[in-house]
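Budget justification, computational time. The allocation requested in the original proposal was used primarily to generate structure tokens for proteins on the priority list. As evidence of use, we reproduce two of the resulting records. The first is shown immediately below.
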Amino acid sequence: MTGAPPPTLAASPPPTLPAYSDPPTDAVLDSGLLHELAHAFGGPFHFLLPQRFDANLAAFRAALADAGVNGQIYYAKKANKAAVWIERCAAGGAGADVASSGELREALGHGVRGEDIVVTGPAKHEELLRVAVLQGALIAVDSLDELDRLLALARTSTVRPARLLLRRLPPAQPHSRFGMTAPELEAALARCVRAGDAVRMEGFCFHLCGYAVQPRADLAGQLVDLCLKARAAGLRADRIGIGGGFAVDYAAAGDWHAFLAAQHPGHYHARKTFSAADFYPYHSPVAGAGALRAVLVAVPAGGRDRLGDRLRETGTLLLLEPGRALLDRAGASVFRVRGVKDRDGYAILTVDGTSLSVSEQWFNSEYLPDPVLVTPAGRAPGRGVHPACVGGASCLETDLLTWRKIPFPARPAPGDLLVYPNTAGYQMDSNESPFHELPLPPKVVVEPHEGRPRWRLDRHPAR
């Protein structure tokens, strides 16, 4: 490829991508608490804002209520391991979506009732199936093999029938490893009918990649038809599960599109290359509970009625499993600057943690919302451009929390804090490990109390 060389950093300042301003987060940044906690822990930490989780849960419930649809919301526990979210589910009557024996124990141990738990994931372990049946959890069955194992277990249970959903392979995503084809579902229904009272077949579900509204509504409409067919065969089939996939809107549209248009390899350490397809869509015009509202008013392909109307008319319950969307603006990650090294017109910062604590970096991507520079005197003021990438404390060349040369408003200095905003959803702990014998960053629950933030450690045991 020929042509003019890319513009230099001086001629083309690195683009910025500020996250939306968030008053509860700003109150913590401005309180002076973060430097006290950094001193106490001697390393990176995450802070969590449970009131945000409660507000997001209420918004999803309002979307269901406004559409006149009966539904149940299950928090997708894999999005963040903290116990506080499960505590909020138990207190607020929400459920939990789990995929392992450990997650099931955590949900039960922090107060979520067995009947308010849905067990997902492929090829579930026998122990997971056994405890799920004993506790009355709803089990999403992914294959005929798994169904046969569950039926065998259910026939020996004297406590209660096994509650299950049958997972549909999305026809538009035939290469997905999740779900059953149409012929396999036919066989599964026949086996459920033959099992009689040993099982309670409650409906269908799917796992669908992507955030588009219409495909989710289309497949949900197909599941409603499957429920009607199953009811005709004598099965309960009164609910459908549409999973998660509700996008989070991190940044304003103008900032996001300007960033994508401006960014090029010269804006990254070592000229690291990313394309727009590598990034999460950090701006989404339809997000969170708004995305659910859009799904409910969409008309499924081949139908005439809105999905919400169809659910209501057929008496079908809607099950949701949001994770990231319930954690929107519900926490941030804090790293202390250890050192600053100048390099060719920008700085390389080294912080006291690793990129294992910002998970996007481990998927050949980048967590793009700008970290906030907080000095001992408060948030750094100014309109300067002090570009710096952010490296971790390990001996790995690729251990960068941020490859991008972030245009900080002031020159970072050792002892300053970098606060990565809105990291509660999938960023904090998906890949964390005690590499180099570094302890896992603690999670701190922060709540307002008498005009100031009050904190406690999360009750999830460190591993």
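The second record produced under the same allocation is shown here.
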Amino acid sequence: MSIAEKAKSAAISAAVTQALAYLEKDPETNIPKVMNLVDKLVPEDWYVAQRQAFRKSIEEKNHWYDLIMKVYALDPGVRKAFFRNFIVNASLQGSATQEEVARKENCNVPWAILLDPTSACNMHCTGCWAAEYGNRLNLTFEELDSIVTQGKELGTYMYIFTGGEPLVRKADILKLCEKHSDCEFLSFTNGTLIDEDFCQEMLRVKNFVPAISLEGFSDANDGRRGSGDFEKVMHAMKLLKDHKLPFGISTCYTSQNYADVSSEKFYDMIIEAGALFIWFFHYMPVGSGAATELLPTPEQRTEMYRRIRAFRGSKPIFAMDFQNDAEYVGGCIAGGRRYLHINARGDVEPCVFIHYSNVNIRDCSLLDALKSPIFMAYHDGQPFNKNMLRPCPMLENPEKLRAMVKATGAKSTDYESPEAADTLCDRTTPYAENWKATADRLWAESGHDCGACAGCAKE
């Protein structure tokens, strides 16, 4: 990184830190004034569009303003830790270090690392490959600690637990949060293990945020996740809200629940419950037990695309659509470009949904894993499609995954039933072919040129 770039990064971090400290004194009074402070601290040509959007939200007191005020209703210690770890450490200073290391080493360096502390889970949800793995595999605390320590050296301060059910390992997760108090930890969880004691521990460590799985209203959710799960999730959300703790929702949308989870009623329910964000994930037909009938049709996926964007303009919740928002991050973010996944056996995988690898974290460093053949194939091949509504090398471009696995000699890391890439890609090819025409039309309608359809060719 050049001296000028380092100075810019330091100036932005300092400006944000000062602005946050200013807001803490009296948020409602000072929020309208904060952009004047930021304007004084950074050059006028830096992040102009972002600053204008933030200023507009403040002036209009719209739904984004409402979301900001919800954040300021959180426990003060937890809020301050989030701002420091997520905004300053992970997103500003950390990103600058990641870019520097990536240039120096000529490989991807992730903004976030996904970790499976355990393969164990107390549930057995339809279509979930994790439920097939059993409870035999775990990363030790020492291994988790080593991964985070190595990650911080690369500039990575964001860690996300997956599984299995991560909270089966509550004690070690909290110990990790406490030791690495400069990092932000998020966990995808079914929410059934969140209780009063755990809420108190969250208040103590301050840097842990749950994303609770919810697949719709009671019938749709319990139909996939088991009878009574909906009520358990609602109870967990009430506990978190009562303790002024941040949390979000993780929703896998399928052919069966897409109408529920994209409805205004669903949005209003989770907002009232206290959720600050929701991550939508397209169902991925991974593993021998994959239920391909759960794959959304092109029409259903289009509805998700349109509804999520519409509610972004009116609802006080931060919504992310993992499959349809690739345009905002330049395509596929796996392979260490923005994140990677390490499973409970230590296999370092390019994506939480794509279980192929050349290396195990028990045998190599994190940096060496990022330079392994399958990760370099991602590095050299991204983006996998000019149409950002077709970002994935498995779901929408299966020929790309076939080629990468074959060229790199990556092996299946499926715990129970190793699956050849050809088998997986044969399963996703019909979906990719069915989605292509709709995706190209939507991409053209949004004013983009992918060169793949008549509408684009005319532009």
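A brief technical remark on that second record: The longest strand covers residues 184-189.
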